[in-house]
Amino acid sequence: MTLLKTCLTVSALALTAAAAQAGEIAVIVKTTNSNFWQNVNLGAQAAIDGQSEHTLSFDGPTAESAVADQVNLVENAINRGVAGLVLAPSDPEALIPVVQRAYESGIPVVIIDSTLGEGAEGSFQAFLSTDNCAAGEQVAQRMIDEAGTTGKVGIMSYVAGVGSEIGRVGCFTEYLEANSDLEIVGPLYSQSQMANALNQTTDMLASNPDLVGIFGANEPTAVGMGRAITQAGKAGQLTALGFDGNEDLQQFVRDGVLTATAVQGSFAMGELGVQAVMDIIAGETVEPFINTGVVMVDQDNIGSDEAKNVLY
Question: Which of 106, 66, 113, 109 is closest to 89 using CA atoms?
Fold first, then answer.
């Protein structure tokens, strides 16, 4: 994320008079067929409510794999002269040309969730996403709070070397090492396959019956981890922390299989993304990277508005 901040140039976008006027802000996401992205829509709507200068449109292809359809949606938005664009690119390379075209047309662009590849720097004005390092540290502090400062903690990771994994798991590990005497077991890599995570966690629990905690670092990994804990009859016997917030993970929290799960701020991506575009249109300066954070969802807050805004 530090590299992104360094490379992302916040140029003073020379907005054309037409683009700088009030008008439509287009939010285009990876797919509309997902509760996660519908939460983004709710956040975007919250940002637009209460003002009359801008209207909001929300669109996306029927599947995240329909990259060409998303490119066409961005082209259409440019052609109808939207005042600003909030985009969650489905492909880091395929969306670069249309984002550059938006920039050349004087349309401010804010990217959310996943950034674009090399060559896109300067063609968008802000990137909003989870700071995975900060999220990993937050989960690590929760582990210390719940499990204490001594004993063994297992790490169930997903794909080695992926940017989000380096930040999330790397900073989790470094934080534990700097702030506790907890011994790290792993990490094991599920390749983001639930079945792999189930089998790996089963083996880890059997080999380390004295684990005081375990961390499942993304959705399929945490789901497999939760199922393994349940099958081993160890629910409630160790601090189990997940990441992401689908229905399976929510149920694990309710049942006490997971102590908590860290859920990325999809609502905040929409709300802060639209707000950033409106700020740019108004001539204000925005930060090049905006951390949309995570919410630690547990039994105490799972029914709260804060949790409902991120769960999917």
Answer: 113
83-137 confidence digits (pLDDT tens): 999 999 989 899 999 999 999 999 999 999 888 988 898 999 999 999 999 999 9
Same-domain check for residues 123 and 148 = no
Antiparallel, parallel or unpaired: β 260-264 and 294-297 = antiparallel
pLDDT greater than 80 at residue 35 = no
Are residue 275 and residue 166 in the same domain, yes or no? no
Q: Are 308 and 264 in contact (CB under 8 A)?
A: no
- The pLDDT-based confidence of 14 (bands split at 50, 70, 90) is very low
- Host domain of residue 65: 2-130+265-293
Report the C-alpha gap between 75 and 62 in whole angstroms.
17
21 with 164, same domain: the answer is no
Region label for 214, one of left (φ > 0), alpha (ψ between -120 and 50) or beta (otherwise): beta
Rg (CA), the chain: 21
Statement: the pTM of the whole predicted model exceeds 0.70: yes
Taking each helix axis from N to C end, the angle separating 96-104 and 67-79, rounded to the nearest 10 degrees, works out to 10
Tell whether 197 and 109 lie within a shared domain. Answer: no
DSSP-H helix ranges across the chain: 2-7, 17-20, 35-48, 67-79, 96-104, 132-147, 163-179, 194-207, 219-231, 247-255, 266-281, 305-308
167 and 124 belong to one structural domain = no
pLDDT tens digits for 182-222?
999 999 999 989 999 999 999 999 999 999 999 999 999 99
Distance of CA 84 to the CA centre of its chain: 22
Number of structural domains found in the chain: 2
Q: Check whether residue 207 and residue 152 sit in a common domain.
A: yes
The least confident of 103-112, 142-151, 243-252, 302-311 is: 302-311
Whichever domain contains 73, its CATH number is 3.40.50.2300
